[in-house]
Structure formats: C-alpha cells, structure tokens
Fold this sequence. Notes:
With 176 residues, the protein is mainly alpha-helical. It has 2 domains: 3-93, Helicase, Ruva Protein, domain 3 (Orthogonal Bundle); 108-175, Vaccinia Virus protein VP39 (Rossmann fold). 47% of the residues lie in helices and 9% in strands. It has 8 helices and 4 strands. A two-stranded antiparallel ribbon has the order 1-2. Helix 7 (145-153) links the parallel strand 3 and strand 4. Helix 2 (15-29) packs parallel to helix 4 (69-85) and helix 3 crosses helix 4 (69-85). It is elongated and about 60 Å long.
Amino acid sequence: MTSASSDIIDKLSTIRDYIRWAASRFNEAGLFYGHGTDNAHDEASFLVLHTLHQPYQLSADYFAAVLTTEERMAVLNIITRRIEKKIPAAYLTHEAIFAGLSFYVDERVLIPRSPIAELIDAHFSPWVDSDRVNNILDLCTGSGCIAIACAHAFPNAHIDALDLSVDALEVAAINR
C-alpha cells in the first residue's frame, strides 16, 4: 500500500466520505460515463455501494456508517482501478442493470444500455399489441439482457436468443 493510499484510508471513514472522494477523483480524471450512469456521483455511489454489498437504494441514514479497514481498502482498490485502468464500472462489478433487472457482464459482451429497455417495459406500445406477441427473436443477444427482459415482459411468448460468439452465449447462459 502506498503512503497516499494509507493517508486516504486513515482520513476517510464513512460511506459518504468515499462516495464524495471518488466522485471528485472521477471528475478530476475526466472519466467517461454512459454504461449505466451519466455522472461522477452516481458512478461513485454505484461502485462504493456494490463493493460494500449494499443495495443501490440504501437509506441516507447509513451514509454516516464507518467502514472497517478491510472495506476501506476494497473501496479504494475498485475506485483506483476505475481511474487508472479506465475500466467501465459494469466490468469492475460484473453487473449491469437493464429494464430494472440485474445482469452479469464481463469483457466478453457489450454493457447493456439500450433505450430498448424502455420499449420492453412499455410492451412496445403503441406499435405492438402485447396480447398478440407469441414469438420474440433476439439476434446478437450478447448478455441475453433483451431476451430475458422480454421474457419477463411477455411471459407467454416463446423467446429465441442467438449469437455467433460462444463467449457471449456463455455470458447469456449465466444470465438465463
């Protein structure tokens, strides 16, 4: 551990401290967002809460909770990796939210972030009569997020998810 890391661990103690610090570092680093978040604060919250195994909608009452040294080191590690290696948060956490569902993702698939999620949630209305949807085909399925979200939205439909990439199909199988 570097002296700078040790200094951070000694001075920052709460969830709030680490989210604020991470957001500042992300802004300083000029990171790109767009893989689930669109700003430094939301990205910092996502990474810190995920690392602490806390829900993303954690009550603000918990933000003053003091982290253990082990938790501080884990948070510092993921924040440092995000900044130094520019790895998208979804690949660091192996999680992406799509259509309100959590999906496993890694470098074998694109991170789901399509406006199609909103169409699925709306049952493709007004363009489709959802009562008449019997079959859905998801070509180039990647993580399987579109097919799986459609299966939730259209529980009586037959869903086919296809991809040429064996790696992508392995990720889709995890999500299935």
